[in-house]
Amino acid sequence: MILIKILRSVIIAAALGALISITIAIVYDVNVAYLAGYIGTVLAVPFGLFIGIRDYLRYRRWILFTSLNLDKLPQQAQRYIAKVGGCIGYKLTVRREVMNELADEFEEQIRRCYSEEEKQKRIAQTIECFGDPRLLGKLIRRAKKRCRPVWKKAIVRSLQGVGVLLVLFILYTGWFITGTANPKVDYLARLNQLARPEIRAEDNAWKNYQRGLELMIQPDEKISDKTGRRLTELSQEEWIAIEKWIAENEESWAQFVAGSKKPYYYREYEVRDNKEFEPPLLAGVLLPPLADFRRMAHIMRFRADLALEQGDIESAAENALASLCLGHHFLHSSPILVEQLVGIAVSSIGMEMILEIAPNADTDFLYELQSNMPVLYFEELLKTAYTGEKYLILDAIQRTFTDSGVGGGHLIPHNMKYILPLIGNDKHFFSTIMASISHARRDATEAKVAELFDRIEKITELTPYQRHIEDKKFDYDIEASMLANRYTLISVLMADFGRVMHLHSRLEANYRAVLTVLAIKRYEAQEGHLPRSLDELVQAGYLDAVPMDPFGPGQLNYRRVDGDFVLYSFGSNFTDNGGQFVYNDKGEVVKFPSEGDYVFWPLANDS
Known about the structure:
Layout: H1 2-27, H2 30-66, H3 75-88, H4 92-110, H5 116-130, H6 133-146, H7 150-177, H8 187-195, H9 206-215, H10 236-248, H11 250-260, E1 270-271, E2 285-286, H12 290-309, H13 313-333, H14 337-357, H15 363-372, H16 378-400, H17 416-419, H18 429-438, H19 442-460, H20 464-470, H21 476-484, H22 488-493, H23 497-527, H24 534-539, E3 557-561, E4 564-569, E5 582-583, E6 589-590, E7 598-601
Antiparallel strand pairs: 1-2, 3-4, 4-7, 5-6
């Protein structure tokens, strides 16, 4: 019976909590409903238990008094016995036993009394001997408890401890979810300052790129997935559609080419409108349509392919250099890794085109190509981008943590709902609460960010080969799993820096290889034979320095073979595989295989 009563009370309390949650979800938003549901769940059980136990105590009191026969005693004695029984606050059997003993004692005291006055006097004397009913009940309860078996004492103490912990948990949860953040640093302004060069407005390529984006016509559905392919990979029908699309984007292409010839690129960063935060939330930074920049690079490659077919080397070179300069602008001006990755992709397309132009160019044109290639300072490329990513994490911390309190500030689960959707994370709000409770405090989190980026900066100073030899790699999966338990916010915001480092190094090897190929072709045209080593190119003034291999212990690997030459890097396995091409299941050459060399020359279609 008692279990049914308590269970019924718990169900009623939980139903009320669910009703409140649904009401809040309708009036406000779903995330607030999650919070209300969580609080309702936490409070429903103790509330239901309280109601059920209260009903049970009332039921016990009714059973107690209906099972006693006190009608023979005066009212004064009945009231005293009832008060003592109520003050004992112990098991029903014990209370009934004590009250029966008291009743027997009072009956014994008045047995030889014949008048009511004498009975009342004897009852008053007996009550005076027993003393205060509250104190008497308390003493009886203590005596009975001392007589309990050890195992019962252990169970009672355990239940009391659980109850105390539950109350403390409820109080802690209430305190935890009601904190407020106090953002003080405008990281958006810092981000813009980080990327802003000292330039004149007419030297900024962004206006041309912006106009080019406005004029760009998107490909139709039939060819939207074909724009990244090479001319030789398209059917006749697809090539006709691509050619039409290229012609439609003539004005857009002209703007991109004009922008690529300008020395600088700078775009003021803005953020999505968000009334919750002031200053603006850095995780909501608005990026340009990066896919359109890649599409324009594809247009440039198609135009270069067509120009080479028609023997127009100058037009092909114009498109190749425009693509390379476009990528250069992103690489040197963007403090955000996503834009850096687009810069790597676009630059790689331009380098690929230049290598295809090299066999058809004369000495003067080769020199012009080599001279017009933008200078890429790879040692500086990543530092700016990593600083931008660091700002993003620090900005998220100041908006999701309290700025003071025990341990240096705690994570506020409610504020996470503004951060996670902006980075494509749909983590459930309830799970966010649980992750927030176990999260490290603000001061420890900021210290971990500083430690993480200090280590990244030191790793960046090493080449991939040096990182491999010294075992100082940055494994994203391992790092994220290590941070997930205590530093969830960092783990969800952290980029795959190891992958980005690898792509930058691969681009560096590619860039040095293109310069080297142009220098070798110039040397061959003027000297009548291929150089015996890359050192001869430096000695003869065709290169400023010997091109080093980021994936090997020395310079890029070069050797003469049957009137031609092979130029390659050790690749990501850091092993010399002899400069052999690696093929996939379709028999196609893999340019950057995971196991094998990165072969830059000869070209795959000439092998």
